[in-house]
Amino acid sequence: MTVTPEQLRALATRAEALTAEVWTLCGNVQTGPAEPGADASAPAAPDPLVSARQAAGLLARAAEELQLAAADLARLQVRPCGLPWGVCPEHGNTLSSQAGVSTCRVCGRTWDHDRLRRPCHEPATWKVIDRAGTVTRMCDGHVLGARAAAGNATFVRLDQEAGSQP
Ligand SMILES: [Zn+2]
Ligand SMILES: [Zn+2]
User: Fold this and answer.
1) Ligand with smallest separation from the Cα of 88
2) For residue 109, pLDDT beyond 70
3) Which of 42, 81, 94, 138 is exposed most, by the fewest CB atoms within 10 A?
4) Among 75-79, 98-102, 151-155, the range of highest mean pLDDT
5) Torsion of CA 65, 71, 73, 76, to 10 degrees
6) If you measure from the C-alpha of residue 157 to the centroid of ligand 2, how many angstroms do you get, rounded to a whole number?
7) pLDDT value at 112 more than 70
8) How confident is the model at residue 164 (pLDDT cuts 50, 70, 90)?
9) pLDDT of 40-91, one tens digit each?
């Protein structure tokens, strides 16, 4: 089976909820000033919940680690867009190529190769489903052009595909 970033994020959410539960149960116990009339010189009673509160700290850290693992995994699972021509990652189909150099007409960024005639290597971050049901994965830049061209297509961000909406 394949572990997905969404599964790790779900576990992290449960660890966060557990952390909160432990804190609610054990976190607000006052071990401070003794009750009125108590002997101030008596040694403080050992805190029976100190371990539980430490556990809450560990759970909180575990939640963070799981979120980090989910982010790492999401990064590793990204595939290149692969459409047969290049785009500006920010502006889409705005490149012109001259003498082997590609330039974005909007931001002026240049690439020292003919980006227009090479397959796109930007990370595929979107899934575009056209009216016929054909699915194409593409990068941010290519999605800009697809949005303009395909009014009836469905656009799904890949990192939100299987995630539960909060
Ligand atoms: Zn640009
Ligand atoms: Zn692309």
Assistant:
1) 1
2) yes
3) 42
4) 98-102
5) -140
6) 14
7) yes
8) very low
9) 566 677 788 889 999 999 999 999 999 999 999 888 877 899 999 999 999 9
Q: How far is the CA of 137 from the centre of ligand 2 (A)?
A: 9
The pair phi, psi for residue 145, each rounded to 5°, is -65, -40
Ligand nearest to the CA of 96: 1
Tracing tokens 């805190």 back to the chain, one arrives at 47
Q: How far apart are CA 103 and CA 125, in angstroms?
A: 23
C-alpha distances in angstroms, 96 versus 42, 103, 129, 140? Answer: 82, 5, 28, 18
The pTM (predicted TM-score) of the whole model is 0.55
Residue type for 122, please?
E
Q: Is the confidence at residue 151, as pLDDT, over 90? A: no
Residue 163 alpha carbon to ligand 2 centre in Å: 23
Determine the distance separating the centroid of ligand 1 and the alpha carbon of 104, expressed in angstroms: 5
CA of residue 140 to ligand 2 center, whole Å: 7
**What is the identity of the amino acid at 162?**
A
CB of 71 closer than 8 Å to CB of 106: no
Residues, Cβ < 5 Å to ion ligand 1: 88, 90-91, 104, 106-107
